[in-house]
Amino acid sequence: MEDSPEDAALLEATLRDGGFAPDIVRVTSEPDFRAAVGRGGFDLVILDYSLPGFDARRGLDVLREAGGAARALVVSGTVGEEDLVETMRAGAVDYVQKENLSRLVPAVRRELREAAARRQRERAESALREMEERFRFVLDQAGGVFYRLRYADMRYEFMSPGIEQLTGYHADELRSLDFNTLITAVTEAATDQHLGVGEPRLSGRTDTYTADYEFKTRTGDRKWVSVHSFPWLDEAGAVQGAVGIMMDITERRVILERLRKSEAHLRTVLGQREHAEAALRRSEEHFRSLIENASDLIVVTDAGGGITYLSPSVERVLGHRTMHLLGGGLLELVHPEDQGRLQQALADAARRGTLADPMAVRLGHADGSWRTAEVLARRQLADRGEGLVITARDITERETLEAQLLQAQKIEAVGRLAGGIAHDFNNLVTAILGYADLLARRLPAADALRRHVEEITRAAERAASLTQQLLAFSRKQVLQPRVLDVREVLESAQGLLRRLIGEDIELIILADAAVGRVRADPVQLEQVLLNLAINARDAMPQGGRLVLEAADVDFDETYAREHVGGRPGPFVMIAVSDTGHGMDRETQARIFEPFFTTKEMGKGTGLGLSTVYGIVKQSGGYIWVYSEPGRGTTFKVYLPRVAQPAAEDTARVPATGPVAGGSETVLLVEDEDSVRELVEELLRAAGYDVLTAGRPADALRLADDCAGPLHLLITDVVMPQMAGPDLARRLRGMRPGLKVLYLSGYSPGIVADRGVLEEGAMFLQKPFSAEALETKVRETLDAPS
Questions:
Q1: 169: helix, strand or coil
Q2: Could you report the per-residue pLDDT of 422-476, keeping only the tens digit for each?
Q3: How far is CA 658 from the centre of its chain?
Q4: Pairing assessment for the beta strands 155-159 and 145-150 based on DSSP bridges
Q5: Strands 44-48, 297-301: parallel, antiparallel or unpaired by DSSP?
């Protein structure tokens, strides 16, 4: 019953594609439907839910009124599932939505199987009734033994000749026997096995009764008889005894027993079949549930490559309606550059039975974008080669994450190289600055060579600035972290930022008073803000808006999985956004690499963002960039949120004027010969007694051998065999009250976290001048223990 020729043709094509060769009669109105139902002969009726002036519920009523055996299946294109469920209650066997015709063939196949099962059960029941009727006919036609029993003496006055065949006794013998004697002689089984009302009390019965008995014949055989007894009345109506008929039911009982066993067996078989059908239905429902809820795309094609089935995941992943794709070719969804490869791979799969290795292709989304999918294929019928079953897994997000991971690994590798170079170069610059300072001190003020020494010093200082940025990127600089109020950091940097960006750029700071606190080096965090602000200024040559925001965020497991290196937990987000020209994807992929820059020659070193990246990473945080050409850029820095209160700024005011020397004993531990010799010379020139060691083991031995007091340990932070902080702990155990000054400088291969010193630790960053060393040594010695 379908008024749309197109929908009817689609239904018929779906049935034929599903393996049916149906004889279809289509009607479009209620009168035609009634006429067709009246003619009968249909295995299944398919009803459109709603037609002009007629609907599925009315059609079900017509079927019920006609009393036909045909069952009805409802197909709908616009009605909700609640209305379709109501049609099920009204008598429909199932319903199929036109948007999901993949259920039509399974539903029809299931109903035809159930109809065949019903017909088989009806034939079995008919055979059972026929057998019972034949048995009844045999009983009706079979002869029996007629008798008449007198109650007065309980003797049989008459027994028909069949008694001898029945019991083996002659009638005369039985007539001469007392009834009780006869019962005793021929009855041995207990009467509670009777099929009737139980053993009758024969003497004096005035009603009609029927009872079955088991007799033991003269030869010892056992037989069953059915006794039908009626009152024997005289002319006055008084009961004289009983008349009746004894029927040999031995064979009948055997047959009945067999019938009972057959019936029980039949019930068992039918029960097993129903159980199997129920299990099959559950399996089909489970399979359908798996397919409909699968995240992978499942496509079935015919031998010509046309699509015959699409799983609902196609619409979820690619946005296409499956109905619109049925009958088309799979290659219509594939990127033109990938079509040739996939076509060849599918042809190989059809020939060999399976696709040897999964292959990645791009599939078109309904919104015009492309999704990357990993495709597998297997021949649908391995021995016939009729079509393919193709599964495709969306790996777009995985590819994105892999690209992020590759970029992170690339930056990490470059960072290690940069850190190693910067460390070694810092030691060289330290020696250059130190010896230049010594040379300048020994030259008279009017000496023309002092100008050359000053130029050497300035060049070394520029080199030191460059290596400082490389150390920041490689996360191998020494930090002095403390708990900071992010809002206060932004407000304190506001004045400097306004002078830096110029008047043509509007500066906006958005930070709630309740924003959390972080543990970081305040100087380095300010450096992050300055570098990002400088980049934003350069991206807005015509002016614009620079917005700094701070907010509390919490990363969940999903967010952490989608961002390489991320981890769940509480963070403070610092966002720096501009309205500049933005960046394309290729530029974004390289912005954190050292020496990469988009600025003109001579206008940038390419270390600004790499320095930002290193500082954020060494502080335990993450940085991500969001940008599009012409739409500005946003850098988001995430630092772990802490619960401790913000620490007060305890930065010391540098001393001015000449630096005083001293006479204390200093233990110098430095693995770089040039730096160790320079520092030793500077300290001895300032009056200190200096013990030097190139390795931590030598330092421990010197401290143990030293008879006098040991006032100060000057040590590199990271050295072979033992780190500076570990050496300091060992020596303080030997020399309580020993003061420590750390020199910053790292060897490659030592993790950056071991370069982060405890709060309050004294340290001097390489490279340094002679004056800076003398000042820091005196400051450390004069500081309270």
A1: coil
A2: 666 667 777 777 777 777 777 887 777 777 777 777 776 666 655 555 554 444 4
A3: 68
A4: antiparallel
A5: unpaired
